Automatic annotation (TrEMBL):
The encoding gene: tilS
Name of the protein in question: tRNA(Ile)-lysidine synthase
Domain Lysidine-tRNA(Ile) synthetase C-terminal residue range list: 330-397
The organism's taxonomic lineage, starting at the top: Bacteria, Pseudomonadati, Pseudomonadota, Gammaproteobacteria, Cellvibrionales
Alphabetically ordered keywords of this record: ATP-binding, Cytoplasm, Ligase, Nucleotide-binding, tRNA processing
Protein species of origin: Microbulbifer thermotolerans
Subcellular location: Cytoplasm
Transmembrane helix listed as a keyword: no
């Protein structure tokens, strides 16, 4: 579970312990407050007192155009993504008042049905699941529970800063609304209705994705641009939103979505593009639109490999021997330029650049494909082809994630 040490996550941790749930507390140190080290120490002490395994990770928050709150959230989810294993559950402590604030924030940003459905009680995160068990509970109820049990929690000094949108809503906008209307109940009802509408749009989007020849690739997914062009504009945008949601991406602002769609649909089959979109990248190649994870910075170096266990490469890539690959002393590295290779079955060598083009390997992956050497001789290019007739086995090169 995400454990900031504040009221909400402290109550959730104690509740889980009371229920006997096996849990690991994960604290993300954002480094944004002078008290951040004190908060980390408090969380570690609390977890130790409860006998709960504890993990802390420090991150750098890069507040770009999306703002500080969004950048901090993205940093937290990167940490969660690194720690979660397939089948794991991530518990988060957002409550009903957080849901109200999220609804109004998204409303004021012009969100559609999917955004206004606000936070789901349960949603996938890669091969794991996110649960928010406190969404039906108010902040006041959590505070009452904590006071009755004399719990200790930290107070983030930034919670009083009304220059932050969420705090302004909480302290200035919502109190007079609550005096007149049952805001939490009404927002919950509206969000539920909008979630149903969003599910209908998602069903339509998934149908359109299949209509556009949705295809899983070695790195992300792709679809047929010509088929996408035939859809009405509103369904094109809905398809892209659905695709992003399915891939675990964040919902981008409408102008960013429009920009990606405009670039993708411009004429010219050879036109290339790479547009950041909700934590993913929209790319174009050979009249197909790709949606991929972001590629990191290419590492320069060599890796020694015996050809037995899987070799973990930078950027979340993995090289694995298959089908009787012989054990031996191999060197693995990325392209440096000017390499030539002669695939098995060919009489003459060619430049690796030309061979990768012939193999239709996507351009953004060509510098990432691992080259396997025995001594100074190139004997294999990722899982694409072998250059040594004496090897009966094969290789698998795949993306496992960051």
């Amino acid at each position: 579970m995400g454990f900031s040490g504040g009221l909400d996550s402290t109550v959730l941790l104690y509740l889980l312990c009371e229920l006997g749930v096996e849990v690991r507390a994960v604290h993300v140190h954002h480094g944004l407050s002078p008290n951040a080290d004190t908060w980390l120490a408090h969380c570690a002490e609390t977890a130790e007192a409860l006998g709960v395994p504890f993990t802390a990770r420090r991150v750098r928050v890069d507040a770009k155009e999306g703002g500080l709150e969004r950048a901090a959230r993205e940093a937290r989810y990167r940490v969660f993504g690194e720690l979660l294993q397939p089948g794991d559950t991530l518990l988060l402590a957002q409550h009903g008042d957080d849901q109200v604030e999220t609804f109004f924030l998204r409303l004021l940003r012009g969100a559609g049905a999917l955004g206004l459905a606000a936070m789901a009680t349960r949603r996938p995160l890669g091969s794991a699941v996110v649960l928010r068990p406190l969404l039906g509970t108010s902040r006041a109820e959590l505070a009452s529970y904590a006071r009755e049990r004399k719990l200790r929690w930290i107070e983030d000094e930034s919670n009083s800063d009304q220059t932050l949108d969420r705090n302004y809503l909480r302290q200035v906008v919502l109190p007079p609304l609550r005096e007149r209307w049952p805001v939490r109940e009404r927002v919950t009802r509206a969000a539920d209705n909008l979630r149903e509408a969003a599910e209908l749009l998602r069903d339509l989007g998934r149908g359109d994705l299949e209509l556009c020849d949705r295809r899983r690739e070695s790195f992300g997914e792709s679809l047929d641009l010509e088929m996408l062009r035939r859809l009405p504009r509103r369904r094109q945008k809905n398809l892209l939103r659905c695709w992003l949601a399915d891939s675990g991406g964040d919902m981008p602002e409408a102008p960013h979505l429009q920009q990606a769609l405009d670039q993708a649909l411009q004429a010219g089959a050879d036109r290339r593009m790479a547009v950041g979109l909700g934590g993913r990248v929209a790319r174009r190649y050979r009249n197909r639109l790709y949606l991929t994870p972001p590629l990191g910075r290419l590492a320069d170096g060599e890796w020694h490999w015996q050809g037995t266990s899987a070799l973990q490469l930078p950027g979340g890539w993995e090289l694995r021997a298959r089908s009787g690959w012989p054990q031996g002393d191999y060197t693995v590295r990325f392209r440096r330029g000017g390499e030539r290779a002669r695939p098995v079955g060919r009489r003459h060598s060619q430049t690796l650049k030309k061979l990768l083009q012939e193999a239709a390997l996507e351009p953004w992956l060509r510098e990432w494909i691992p080259l396997v050497y025995r001594g100074e001789r190139l004997i294999a290019v990722g899982g694409l082809f072998l250059c040594d007739e004496g090897i009966a086995g094969s290789l698998e090169w795949c993306y496992r994630g960051p």
